[in-house]
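protien #1 (seq + structre)
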Amino acid sequence: MPSSSRRPPGSAGVRPVVPQTSLRHIPRKRFGQHFLHDPGVVRKIVEAIAPAPEDAIVEIGPGEGVLTRPLLERAKRLDVIEIDRDLAAALPGDRIQVHVADALEFDYGVFPKGVRIVGNLPYNISTPLLFHLSRYADRVRDLHFMLQLEVVERMVAKPSTPAYGRLSVMLQTRFAMQKLFRVAPGAFRPPPKVESAVVRMVPLGSPLGCDEKVLEKVVREAFSARRKTLRNALSLDPEDYTELGIDAGLRPENLSPQDYLRIARRLARSDR
């Protein structure tokens, strides 16, 4: 959240950073910028990531570089994705490769397999960005993000709980996730109106076993009618529920991520 990494029209490119004097950047509302400034929180994030010299690390939305600097103390080099040209120009050091780009459109496949992705994500684009990043689950080692607390709670929510929904299922079919710690609004400049949290995401390492688009369609249909029973929310035949061993009288929020994978695999086999 502390910086945005969405690209304004006409901005693109990759270049090494020329060290400049640190500036106190005026947060831009259109980028959803809230800059982390609490050294204790920064230290906890770096300790959670535990970067090693040989790690390939990508930071999304480095902002004023408050996390960038301690990461560079442990890693040999760093790739960063930043939309704000002024912030990109002020980033420190000659071991940074800056990608002036929109994180929502960026091709993370250009980085080596096993890349580690970190960042204080812009809260106004966090959900679509998480969906975009999930498509690269087979290429990343882990992801550590600062996000709005409510979003993190939805990410890690268990079935049959109020926070459990589409985001929970789509991420939990690809990642094991852990909420690490909460962060108060005062840790940012300017303080946001919500609490934040840091989450760790580790790819499960197993293929979905179904067409990703089929899974997305099933989950979207289910949670767009989450108050209905499955028989009224999904386009499955009665025999489908029998063979899957799923009670059609349940609601979408009662099924596990693995249940949704099984439904998607069955639909894919029947070409529906």
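ok now protien #2
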Amino acid sequence: MTTDIADPRLDFVSCLDPSGLHRMAYWEWGARDNPRVVVCVHGLTRQGRDFDTLARALAPDWRVVCPDVVGRGRSDWLAEPMAYQVPTYVADMVTLLARLGAEQVDWVGTSMGGLIGLGLASLHDRAGRSPVRRLVLNDVGPALGADAVQRIGAYVGQPRRFASEEEAADYLWSISNSFGPHSREQWLGLTRPQIKAVNDAQGAGFVPHYDPHIGLPFKAVTPELAAAGEAVLWQRYDTLRCPTLLIRGADSDLLSHETAQAMTQRGPRARLVELPGVGHAPTLVQAEQVALVREFLQSP
């Protein structure tokens, strides 16, 4: 195997949607011929380069694939905004796995990325095999905290423009300081792929690197729809049989301690690790968080 861990390769795969086709971008680290594949999927407003630190750590032993979920990063935007929902994302990941030629993968999913992984892991072929061998759920579960949903809904899709990377980093920190302590260098590293440069009638600047419409389905959820969705997610979770690591920020407002404990008692009976001083959601850039994921993926 030939291994490249310095920088990722960018590639695209065409996926089907109700309006036709869209391209999903994905970043790939490590050897293409490595049969050990780990897919890392980001949260609602983020993109695949969130996992650069983790990917570099895993690339010597895994082929690491970090997609930009449609509507984010280098991926296309959907013609129909209400299609920005988990079933669309799961279908895209099935297409991605076919492109990778991987019958089974390990999955690391942060927030929305964890829900996508949960949905994918609950699918089985006629022989009863799931495409997910091991599952890491990073600060997410079948029940989502209402306060967190309201907090995220208040900023997702809001028009923003920044004069500099530093200004963008300051704003993103103001809405994301629950991610836990980061050095300025670490935070700028997470910020740069999160914005894109523009030069238009307003002059040069930076804007968020996602389709503002991704928030429309999120904001359209009523209490009744939320309850129905939670019931479906628990049903799906209870079908999982793959080893599952549940990481929770001890101060998380999205994943409650009670929900996390319930996840250790049903379905795959997840192994729970709570991280002090962190809310929603751990970024998996700190050395101890990287080691936690690596140890789980390597365990027999």
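The CA atoms of residues 34 and 63 lie 6 Å apart.
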